[in-house]
Specification:
Keywords: Membrane, Transmembrane, Transmembrane helix. This protein is an alpha+beta fold. The protein contains one helix and two strands, in the order H-E-E.
Length: 92
């Protein structure tokens, strides 16, 4: 026990195992894909909703000068009546 120890030969030692970050990299890649897909879906839904609302406003029925709209006093029914002048031959 007393004496000097043999020198350590590093070539006979096993290789040090490397810490594998492949799982973390793969998780980051999957997370990036999912977040990108979610963001794209959200943008498409917002654009579709904006187009739908703007088309609805554009094609909304507009009350013109020759139309009268109101409620019948006796039955509370919503009506829209076209006014026709007396000299007109419409509807004859």
């Amino acid at each position: 026990m007393n004496g000097s120890a043999d020198e350590l030969d590093l070539s006979h030692l096993p290789k040090i195992p490397r810490h594998d970050n492949g799982g973390i990299k793969q998780l980051k890649k999957i997370l990036a894909i999912i977040l990108s897909f979610t963001g794209l879906t959200l943008v498409l839904v917002l654009v579709f909703g904006f187009v739908l609302i703007s088309r609805k406003k554009r094609f909304m029925e507009i009350l013109e000068d020759w139309e009268v709209q109101g409620v019948l006093p006796s039955s509370n029914i919503q009506i829209a009546v076209k006014r026709i002048s007396h000299d007109s031959r419409q509807g004859m």
